[in-house]
Amino acid sequence: MAAALNKQHYHHHQQQQQLQMDGGKYVRYTPEQVEALERVYNECPKPSSLHRQQLIRECPILSNIEPKQIKIWFQNRRCREKQRKESFRLQTVNKKLSAMNKLLMEENDRLQKQVSHLVYENGYMRQQLHSSSAMTTDNSCESVVISGQQQQNPTAQQPPKDASNPAGLLAMAEETLAQFLSKATGTAVDWVQMIGMKPGPDSIGIVAVSRNCTGIAARVCALVSLEPSKIAEILKDRSSWFRDCRCIDVLNVIPTGDGGTIEFVYMQTYAPTTLAAARDFWILRYTTSLEDGSLVICERSLISTIGVPSGPPPLGFVRAEVLPSGYLIRPCEGGCSIIHIVDHVDLDAGCVPEVLRPLYDSSKILAQTMTIAALRHIRQIAQESSGEVQYGGGRQPAVLRTFSQKLCRGFNDAVNGFVDDGWSLLDKDGAEDVTIMVNSTNKYFGSQYNSSMFPSIGRGVLCAKASMLLQNVPPALLVRFLREHRSEWADYGIDAYSAACLKSSPYEVPCPRPRGFPSGYVVLPLAHTVEHEEFLEVVRMEGHALSPEDMTLAHDMYLLQLGSGLDENAVGACAQLVFAPIDESFANDAPLLPSGFRVIQLDPKTDGPSTTRTLDLASTLEVGSGGARTTDDGDGTYNFRSVLTIAFQFTFENQLRDTVAVMARQYIRSIVGSVQRVAMAIAPSPLNPQLGLKSLPGSPEALTLARWICRSYRIYTGGELLQSDSQAGDGVLKQLWHHSDAILCCSMQTNASPVFTFANQAGLDMLETTLVALQDIMLDKTLEESGGKALFSEFSKIMQQGFAYLPSGLCVSSMGRPLSYEQAVAWKVLDDDNLNHCIAFMFTNWSFM
């Protein structure tokens, strides 16, 4: 009886699903009618009134249904579809949150274990200290010390593994697996979470870096919407996501009994700047599965002491070591995976100059360039697979990624200039600031360019490159400026020459010359990554010719441009702008000759000088840490440094090689000067509006100096320098600092050239410098010859009378830019004891020429 009632209730429920209501009336649809309506819905979910009437006429089984009832059916059908999609979305989010919750619980367990381990170590160290203090009265503590040392080094007496036989090789792989898992999910490394990397369903993941361990290490764990096997395939193809990977070769594959593999891998990585050597690695890679279904890929370096011949590193490389690292990939519901990535390396930082060591001994830089890069690439592939990423230009995502890889690889090749690629150093012109390298080998051309671009007749590639150390210049801000204000540093004629090199015969080599940049500057976006940390775009510059001989400049030019790290603020982030000329067709196999800029922020220093000037990195390396002339303000102000690398490539014909080299060297120097001016402009101002002006070492307080300047001006000229010479607070200093005319103070030295000791904001702008770097600028190097003669002819008058008016003249800024001024006033500045302290200058109506 109950079964019959249940069956009757089920049929009634099914009938209700097929009923539609129209003004209180129910309409029952037959299965044939529902099937016909579903076919129409799949083609057109929202048919018009005419379409619905046509449907009734053409489909006899719907002839007894009114058009309004058909309209309601489609409305309900769309509503059910919307509810289904929303339900699926919520289920997906719920699965992600459940997996993320599981990940956070595991991370919490790991942190609790780490706390317990630290508590144990703390107790053990207290016991050791107590035992040491009692050694003179109780010798029994020696046994405690020895037993404690044995507990701290449980593997010290284990013999090294021998990889010359399969059993020893498998034992080494299993040991690598255990050490990797202890880092990924255990407490083998003291992990510290990176600032700003907070967990969540849409976050990059939980990112941590090592503290107080051998080498440098980074770790990330996150949820990814891909199957474990797909993730493993992506991660093994390291050259597709690790932009610093030059090559990776699997030399041998040995299967294991449990279905895993042991591989011997050789890898080379690029150097990030021109003044350091690249690295290479011999790696053992072990792939296996765990009992819970997790997939593991772990690796470590092979060294000769374990029975595996590795050989010496090639010319231009330094052998580095991979400590137990790898990937733990655990499957989750809904086709997702929880992934743990651990990178632990020793890059032999001791063999690089001290100023560059932060590039090699910073776990934060490793996290940004390698660990997070791997996770971002996986997330990008997952988004592309789900169809959530939109691309422009009708290009497939794989094609656009290939363009990005070609740009990065070509730029890295130019920066490194490997001998085995055919690069050779060109003789220098006596200066060490710009390096010129040439490549005329078919090996280099065949690997990157097609034969139509480089015919058999003599053609080659020339690369001009330089490196600089920037202080207090945010990398992302600098690269954004270079991208958005190309006219501030680029030469349009040289851009046209680079574009013409894509043709069969380039036009005459230009000399860098000031020329109006094209007014038409259009950016066409192509693609960007999920988190917008990297983008690919085409830049179109409208051509213009100012004379008949410059008709080549009349054609539009196109650049394929890659930008990355423009929104990054974390330490170790790399901001980069790389571009290459392309023709209008822009084929998928278009040849690329990349040039550009790379800025890598180093770890912040709190004990160094807080300057905002730029230094030539080559000269810094030559003179050592004490060679750069800086002034420490002594207040421990937070400051940071960055390494800027510039590399530009040009093609040439053999008979024009030297001409192109001169042009390239001159062009790079002009770009360096432009970058220095930009860096000076965007660096944080040393004047804090709330705290007032910083006082310089060895000088009176800034407020006192400002009062001396104003009082002496009133005494000697009879006029007022400021509108209101108030003695209350720091009003004098603020008015002097914001004075519209350039006011500078110069030392009164009889046995040395006078140097500037103070300047207001207008004075710093005129000299294009900062307060700290101001003390390195000499007066006679600033004044033009006629202005210097006028000053020295009036010097005796200044000392006797106290002031003098100087005629209009010319000056030169610290960046070498000429400027003119309408008039200048010079006067003595007296201290409170009426003794000569310095000479002040005021330049009125000055402007750059």
Automatic annotation (TrEMBL):
This is Homeobox-leucine zipper protein ATHB-14-like. Belongs to the HD-ZIP homeobox family. Class III subfamily. It comes from the Eukaryota. It is found in: Nucleus. It comes from Trapa incisa. GO terms for biological process: cell differentiation. Residues 149-160 have a biased composition (Low complexity). Residues 20-84 form the Homeobox domain. Residues 22-85 bind DNA.
